[in-house]
Amino acid sequence: MLFSATSPLESAERLKELGYDGIDVGLTGIIYHDDPLPHNPMLDDEDYEPILDRHMAKCRELGLQILTAHIPYRFNYSDPTIENYDYYYHMTVRALRAAEYLGAEWAVVHVQKAEDTVAYVKRLLADAGVQKIGIAIENLPKYSLAEVIAAHDILEQEGYRVGVCLDTGHCHINKYFAYDVAEAVRVLGKRIKMLHIHDNSRNLDAHYVPSMGSIKWKGVMEALADVGYEGAFNYELQPGKIPAEARAEYEQFAVAMARYLISVFEARRAEHNA
């Protein structure tokens, strides 16, 4: 199982230093203008490919694989009347094109109501004109897994390349979901193509390192092996919130926990292959 993290491309060297194999490229900041997060100017100009080329060359030099991408999400894509909608949507289309250019296999789209998600994914793919990259629908705390499954299955039946991005933290605080995260893995099954791994104590979307909240991680990793998950162990943490003086130790702890959990997955998978 490969080990990756959701992170800006600018963090590639640090990820490799820590022992990561790959990156889930964070492109969400391209629509922020310090509201609430800093702006990422990477895709501001239409001629953005030379910038991406430099980052791709750096990743190749480091041996860090570009696996997946997280395109913008902090706007209500089903409501075109919101302020700046056209800008947000235009930049999301650009981000999807950039993700495919980078060689990412999947790009994340957050779920809404199934019919809204389906309509948005179809429009986004058509306007971006991408040919290879797939869309991974991510579960959210305020929408049931039934919406994720319905949107996924409709798109798949119509021939779209689609999967699910299981966000463990979102699942743990989902107000509709009556099971633990391991059971969610079994409900989603082969639909799961990528992960956003983080923990919480079922009170807020905290993005903790596993073991700092209340998710039962051994069961989650064994369930992933049981359903035949083939993607990476991908963290979605928030190291920037940790004081600089303590960040290195925090990052090393996160890596140690990932290595342990990957070993649980690998042991379970070996049992199936025995």
Q: What does it look like?
A:
The mean pLDDT is 96. The protein is built from 9 helices and 8 strands. It is globular, with a radius of gyration of 18 Å. Helices cover 44% and strands 15% of the residues. An 8-stranded parallel β-sheet has the order 7-6-5-4-3-2-1-8. The chain is an alpha/beta fold. Helix 4 links the parallel strand 4 (106-110) and strand 5.
Distance between the termini: 18 Å
Largest sheet: 8 strands, parallel
- Portion of residues in beta strands equals 5-15%
Strand order of the largest sheet: 7-6-5-4-3-2-1-8
Structural class of the secondary structure composition?
Answer: alpha/beta
Rounded radius of gyration (Å) = 18 Å
DSSP summary, beta strand count? 8
> What is the averaged pLDDT score?
96
Number of helices: 9
Short summary:
By secondary structure, the chain is an alpha/beta fold. The chain is built from 9 helices and 8 strands.
What order do the helices and strands come in, and which of them pair?
Elements: E1 3-7, H1 12-18, E2 22-26, H2 49-62, E3 65-70, H3 85-102, E4 106-110, H4 114-128, E5 134-138, H5 145-157, E6 162-167, H6 168-172, H7 181-188, E7 192-196, H8 217-226, E8 233-235, H9 244-273
Parallel strand pairs: 1-2, 1-8, 2-3, 3-4, 4-5, 5-6, 6-7
Helix pairs in contact: 3-4, 4-5, 7-8, 8-9
What are the salient characteristics of this protein?
274 residues, alpha/beta, 8-stranded parallel beta sheet, 9 helices
